[in-house]
Amino acid sequence: MSDFLVVGGGVIGMLTARELAQSGATVTLVERGLCARESTWAGGGIVSPLYPWRYKEPVTQLATWSQTSYVHLAQDLLEETGLDPELRQKGMFMVSVDDADQALAWAERYRRPMERVDADFLYRKEPHLKPGHRSALWMPEVASIRNPRLGQALRRSLELSPLVELVEHAGNTELLVRDGRVQGVRAEKGEFRAPQTVLAAGAWTAELLAPLGVELPVEPVKGQMMLFRAPVGLVNRVVLLDGRYLIPRNDGRVLVGSTLERVGFDKQTTAEARDSLYRTAIDILPRLADFPVEHHWAGLRPGSPEGVPYIGAVPGIESLHVNAGQFRNGLVLAPASTRLMADLLLGRQPIIDPAPYGLAGRLASN
Questions:
Q1: Residue 139 in 3-state DSSP?
Q2: Could you give the CA distance from residue 196 to residue 1 in angstroms, rounded to a whole number?
Q3: Phi, psi angle pair for 257, to nearest 5°
Q4: Interval 128-177: pLDDT, tens
Q5: What domain of life does the UniProt record list for this protein's source (predicted)?
Q6: How many angstroms separate the CA atoms of 165 and 261, rounded?
Q7: Is it the case that residue 364 has pLDDT exceeding 70?
Q8: I need a surface site. Which of 29, 150, 335, 355 has the fewest CB within 10 A?
Q9: Do 110 and 185 contact (CB within 8 A), yes or no?
Q10: Backbone phi, then psi, for 139, in 5-degree steps?
Q11: For 143-164, b where at least 16 C-beta lie within 10 A, e where not — what string?
Q12: Are 137 and 97 in contact (CB under 8 A)?
């Protein structure tokens, strides 16, 4: 029997398992399908919240810690596994921002590099953007990571660890509870037990808790995205306009996203969203019209009130913990969220105050 059982093989679950194993604990990670194939794979990989000044303080705290750790994480994973997560530290432009003054005030308060730049600066950096922008906000330290490759590297890291048992294709799972204490999970592939269980199942976390009478306010929020096969250098930095974005990859591909749809667990793509994303992409970067759309897909984010995740023990139920609800910022917040979870589980000094993320007082009912 392992010391810890982690349910869910996305970036949050895998990094939680990795953090625990690095402390010397043994971990079993159970994933109903394949690791890193849900929102971890489907996201964009910007290592910053979109319009970060519009989020609550708890999100900023997690994001700030995570952003400074990604350089080391990406390098460590490359050295461990030989798989490159492709962290690109090229910066992010935000154009047509209505509340730029609030953004700059936020940046000054939190000492985050941000400045207002003129059109000359913008088009010198990104000459292929649609003409007509007179200024932009520029965050030079914002990075992006190629999330499918990050998922592959994390999975390989766990495979290589002698302290981690990785169980994929486990099928549907349910919690095993006896006398108010969670003992593990029962899955189609068998039963898995541990003294402590962590639910990191993203948008599905609330469904696992519901039979226990716990109503976690985490719901699936569909996001559709699109990928263009473009040449290297067409765009080199993340560009954000009216809530949507372009993200370039090292091989020239350009990702455009994303929609926000509350339609339950439906992951079907739609022609309407495809047309909308295409128009967005061309409006930001007209030359993308010359290149083919390679892929269009959808994923389910774990939506939570104001995007503040749930990290901590489940009140009234022994040995059960949650790390979920990062909403649109799963990749952004993952390093800090999982380090904080590990700190709490191992009795270490937390990296940041855990109180804003605790479940007590934040559940729909207990």
A1: strand
A2: 11
A3: -155, 170
A4: 999 999 999 999 999 999 999 999 999 999 999 999 999 999 999 999 99
A5: Bacteria
A6: 35
A7: no
A8: 355
A9: no
A10: -115, 95
A11: bbbbbbbbbbbbbbbbeebebb
A12: yes
Among 52, 139, 47, residue whose Cα is nearest residue 91: 139
Q: What token pair was written down for 104?
A: 């700059």
* Residues ≥6 apart with Cβ < 8 Å to 74: 84, 85, 87, 145, 150
Q: How far is CA 211 from CA 12, 138, 173, 216, in A?
A: 23, 47, 12, 11
What is the three-class DSSP state of 53?
A: helix
Q: Token pair 């006398």 is at which residue?
A: 179
What are the two backbone dihedrals, phi and then psi, of residue 16, each rounded to the nearest 5 degrees? -60, -45
The amino acid occupying position 120 is D
* Tally of residues, the chain: 366
Nearest in space to 147 (alpha carbons), one of 5, 276, 328 = 328
Q: CA dihedral in degrees (305, 281, 145, 199; nearest 10)?
A: 30
Report the C-alpha gap between 171 and 173 in whole angstroms. Answer: 6
Q: In what order do the strands lie in the sheet with 135-139?
A: 115-118, 135-139, 92-95, 238-241, 244-248, 254-257, 219-228, 293-303
- Residue showing tokens 């590297």: 153
CA distances from 360 to 75, 304, 341 (A): 37, 15, 15
Q: Band the pLDDT of 60: cuts 50, 70, 90.
A: very high
Give pLDDT tens digits for 309-325: 999 999 999 999 999 99
Rounded to 10°, the helix 330-346/11-22 angle is 40
Which runs of E-coded beta strand occur in the chain?
4-7, 27-30, 92-95, 115-118, 135-139, 164-167, 173-178, 181-187, 190-193, 196-199, 219-228, 238-241, 244-248, 254-257, 293-303, 310-313, 320-324
pLDDT for res 362: 87
**What is the pLDDT averaged over residues 176-180?**
94
Closest among 23, 335, 171 to 3, alpha carbons compared: 23
The residue type of 62 is L
